[in-house]
Design brief:
The structure is a homotetramer. By secondary structure, chain A is an alpha/beta fold. Helix content of chain A is 48%, strand content 10%. Chain A has two domains: 208 residues, Aldolase class I (TIM Barrel, Alpha-Beta Barrel); 89 residues, no CATH class. Chain A contains twelve helices and eight strands.
């Protein structure tokens, strides 16, 4: 089911649940997928950075989308990450995700090597020419080659297959320019933000939505922000946006990304195990203190299932964190 | 006249007019100061980065503020840049600016050398303890040592003399955290943005205003944005914010900063000469093409005085720029 | 055949030959492997950055080593890149490479995500504890997380399986500190440089050798440098090192890395096709001019097979490059 | 005395002694200058980064050179830092330093603002055209705009007044290219390194010497390295270079640069006070522990005057440092 619907709203980049032996926990992934849909997120976004696509195998990435598409059964659109190591593998992924009825794929600029903007533009033009499925540019210069705004502009003008951008650069001035220079020329071009702290400012300025990792932990809150915005209750949207900031910061502070987000999901009642990147014992100690703080924050948000893990006062946790932090480099 | 008024609204970081022999053109600085006040900007901000404080002498920096304070005669508050090379010179500047009736000084983190956050905090605590005038932290990590949010938080809690921050980091997520972690604890702490592209989003989220260089070129437009925001006409504020984006981009693209802003001021009818950093002949050629584009943009904004310099079609200028750009490294 | 020989001398990070349909050209890889051994390089280094390990599939990486080990038949040691996306896949690769008789594997810090030094240390400790084959740390902070010198020191002291470092950071002061702080404590720890421009300085200061991409293009020259150094003819080693600098620079300037090095191999008589990262038509034009320059440089080095492709004067090529460069962003 | 002598050997970038009230301690500066000359350093280098030129006033910078020139009385050449905030002030400084008989001035690329390579080239061409004294380019991209190698090449070919480069970029591959692309074309162009860790490799490859901050602390050792090199005793030069590495690292680790180097000078029997950048109490504690370690290292080098301050075992200091470090951010 390739739908012509514009990509907008809140897409959830999900973590992948693993067993202890590092196999994907398919049952839990299904349960989690279902829960996200029931909580009302606009769409699903497997194989994003939150999904640690880079740390699992090609076959696992395909499998993650198969499971989620099967479980979603067309109830919500799926944006599938397809940032494969070369263009042949991207096409292979695109074909499979099209067959599975995904709405679009998202593709980062090449990673590891530095590559010229000329090559990046050429790369996306080749993709756009042959892809059987719509493409969302995924700009995340922290981790992979930036896709410059000039390149985005030319691709948007020339390539119908490229239907939008998900910008995780944390660069709001650039996002403003994108709205001004691209969206005005091609209004159906989706401008999605991949930076949770500025979801509301982006919506207020005309952005189409976001891929928001904390919507995988507190979908109720993120959807309340988004729906308040839609209904014109900006004060409430603002209240929730600010309320989310500490939660976001806490999850980013817990070990290597995305372990804090993974733990947030666990505190909501799932068993996602540990991710592929191991933590040192020192980091685990720090992580456990953060976990308690995270539980308290989630409890404050009204998520009773997290209450049991909120065992210590916030001040105690902060001092514990302080002490542990000093032992980390 | 040290006023207890909160720092908010639009403060204009002005360029300094020079004669050909590099002396400050005092008459033109007076005329320009007066014009800015008449156009309705909230306050003046001499010795910011736009004022190229780093490229003139200590005596010249003092002189710039003396002239402007004398011309302003208390009509608008003055925020005076005092980022001097060492703490003794900062105090010397602070004392003089207090005597001149300035509202506050702004001070960057140390520049050139990398300095620890511990030292930066200590530095501002010493300043705050002894300064005869209120201090605004000036965060501009592109050019000088970042003042981390943790340091800002502690300074805001402990130092009444430090009354706010002007954040030019272009980092909206950080600005959101500043509002959430500092302003909630100390509501009178001014959170001013120093990034023109995101003035409106910042205002919508609760920021107090901005130090906005293009308010020195098109004060009518920036004040219309700000006043529309104040009166609740968000649609108009949005229209102006987006309208300003191309003007801002064009001025940033003209030679080394702040030559484009300087030229904008010239196109409004002033004679500010050239700044202390010389341009190569190649760059002058590029600059002249940009100048024409800038004139056309200002003409479109309704500033008739710029019309004469808008001599070529926008397409012609763009192609000229393209040709020249290719000859630049 | 796991040999206890210390890793030293010149290891060649080879490009991978492809057919037009992107399959690995096995015959050419065999012929090239054999040629390198006959030219006298100390060892082979498949799946380095030059081998574009990140752009091919896991199965292809394994296959590259299988082919080269089969062709080498123990004549030279093989250092096999095993920077797989997760620890399970690294072990899988290690096991296979051990079975194939490789001397050691090289492993980068994790790429894409930023990871703490604590995690990186923990990661290598886990690898070292379980690997069936010796490990060389591969430090390349341009592309993947840096392995800090403090971490290198602790790993060298505690983990016999970790037998050395290949440092591609281009950071000679760090390399000096590595020699001083690690090698003095564990003399059998191999300190290999992965920066061609400073091979001789590194050897003179006590380094063990290098993984030198231009030894895949001009093995005669690099081995002459190395052997002159060994025999005490520093003047000749210096002459060759400086002679190589322009060749190195030219290959780095040709398109995205490692296309220039690939073309160098082609000019020596091989058919390596194009790499997985496509070039734009503009870049191809630039590339072809560089190719001619490269041919002339190789001809000057006495490699007659490159002479035919050296068609224009160096001045002509430089002016052509200049003209083309201006059309590139 | 403007001498046509080539700039080579070891130039000492000196710290400036201050009284507690931040005035320059002229007597101690004279005594220190004299001591350096007696210890045999090739030349003096006031107003370098070690001299914290950026943190003192224009008048103080001029005064520092006046004192040192007066004390040196032509016994050694003086290279005077003249990185003033604008070109008029640079000329003013150049004129004064020429009058004082300095050998040359060193000038960094502009700092604070980012400036195009075109402007940097133009800036140095203007300087070269009008300067009454020879100029050494000072490349230190950590703190000020890089002077690209292409710009260096063109300046070296066109401007007789520009007689060399002092490269503090820590980038040995770039230094190799400078030797290969500039010095081969203009053999009298001085290539001086400003990175202490790689002095010997640079000399071995054909560099002319260095501006070496630790030659202000242990001139005996640095001159022994240099003189051993000159006399062909490379083994001894190597021994000293490696011996110096820990001293260098320790001084860099002590507070903000250049406090560790300042303390090294104090341990040799001078009273240089504290620099203009204040340290926090936490940092002072750390600093004092480092001081003891530094004293022990200097004692080991045979400098008896430091012995009294070497009060604790190295292991104790290391553990103390470790504990303190954990309390610093």
């Amino acid at each position: 089911m390739i739908s012509p619907t514009k990509i907008q709203g809140i897409f959830t980049p999900n973590v992948v649940p693993f067993y202890d032996d590092h196999r994907i926990n398919e049952g839990e992934l299904r349960r989690y997928t279902n829960w996200l849909i029931e909580k009302g997120v606009t769409g699903l976004y497997p194989n994003g950075s939150t999904g640690e696509f880079i740390r699992i195998s090609f076959e696992q990435r395909i499998r993650v989308v198969e499971i989620m598409a099967d479980e979603a059964r067309g109830r919500v659109p799926i944006l599938a990450g397809a940032a494969e190591p070369n263009i042949d593998m991207v096409f292979q992924a695109c074909k499979r995700y099209a067959d599975l009825g995904c709405r679009a794929v998202s593709v980062t600029g090449p990673y590891y090597f530095k590559v010229s903007q000329h090559s990046i533009e050429h790369y996306f033009r080749e993709l756009a020419a042959k892809s059987p499925i719509d493409i969302l540019l995924y700009n995340i210069p922290q981790f992979s080659n930036e896709i410059s705004l000039d390149v985005v502009k030319r691709l948007a003008m020339d390539c119908p297959r490229i239907v939008g951008i998900k910008d995780s650069s944390r660069d709001m001035p650039r996002f403003m320019d994108t709205l001004n220079e691209v969206k005005t020329q091609r209004p159906d071009f989706s401008c999605m933000i991949g930076c949770e702290e500025i979801l509301l400012p982006v919506l207020l300025m005309g952005g189409d939505g976001g891929t928001i990792a904390c919507s995988g932990v507190a979908p109720e809150a993120v959807m309340r922000l988004y729906n308040s915005f839609l209904s014109g209750d900006i004060a409430e949207a603002k209240r929730v946006q600010f309320k989310l900031l500490e939660l976001i910061k806490t999850m980013f502070a817990a070990g290597n990304f995305p372990e804090g987000f993974r733990e947030g999901v666990n505190l909501r009642g799932f068993h996602t195990g540990r991710g592929p990147q191991p933590m040192s014992p020192h980091e685990m100690e720090h992580f456990n203190a953060i976990r308690s703080k995270l539980a308290c924050l989630l409890k404050e948000c009204g998520f009773a299932e997290a209450a049991d893990s909120c065992q210590t006062s916030s001040a105690k946790v902060d001092s514990m964190l302080e002490r542990i932090r000093k032992r980390l480099p």
